[in-house]
């Protein structure tokens, strides 16, 4: 596979179907998809006044990735903005210790859906020498798909906040916005009608600071709750706003709870996916002074990815006799799913199969392949794996396994299935094969 392709949790296993004691085989295939582009763009960075140095006009190298490149309208997409090489550097001669940088920023949407996504990163970094280059860092945020079509994502402005001796900011803006497109997602119409969306006036603040929350597409005249979120749970931060005649909202939320990592807005007394928007990422910068002789110890838990691997790339199904036909049986190569994302989202593993091609243009219809799924959950996993229903796979596809959404999700899972290809009695002799594509979302 060339460098211009990557896995998006979409894998294809070639099933070697057998008939009349003649077997066929094949190799693992992985559908190609466009890789996110690492892009360079001109950036204007303003060091803090205490540094006594002029603005820096340099080049930022960045990349944007998403957890789902083929969402449906109404889906929430997790976006990661990685600044591979910042344009700015440590503006002072004093070396900066580890884990004192808190990055925040914006990602610009274009194409089928316009707007900005607020992104924020953890307070985590390697030590930075005096006047040394800032290290690479990543920021995450989310947006809800409101329109089908191709949606482009470009890196936007970012800010590097340092908390050591003094609280300092180095804001960096895109000199010629928008920056080049780094990632594109293609959304399909999922039938969802919730187009509510919010954005924040700033992506970070000290405990007790207020953040401006603006939004659109709420029910005109509706009372809207503004709330802080930490993962799937709400924090103690609450506020209110009222949607105007056009469904727009504008309000302020005082963020005092240090656990808050995002902000949501929703109609009614409690959050619901149908009448809510967000979360928009927000970082509370804890500037509480330490008692004399104390040391503050910071740590973080880094969110991982949703991934899967297969035990093999070929399945040999048992032969059947010409004139008798019957079921050609075998077992799916075991699939291992690892969900280390954190947060409330579950996952779904689906499969679809092509017709089984044979000699001289003969074929066995894809609908003739059936499966009986099974799955197991590793001890200690927050989620529980559910097998799909037994039945035909076909070209339309079926669910192999899934886990539900929940307050806390994740874990490791093994997925298997008994396979059976119903071969008609007088199917021409020869080897038949079809491609089963498994998709993890």
From TrEMBL:
Residues 379-411 are annotated as: Disordered. Residues 387-398 have a biased composition (Low complexity). Residues 1-29 form the signal peptide. It comes from the Bacteria. It comes from Streptomyces umbrinus. The keyword Signal applies. This is Beta-xylosidase. Keywords: Signal.
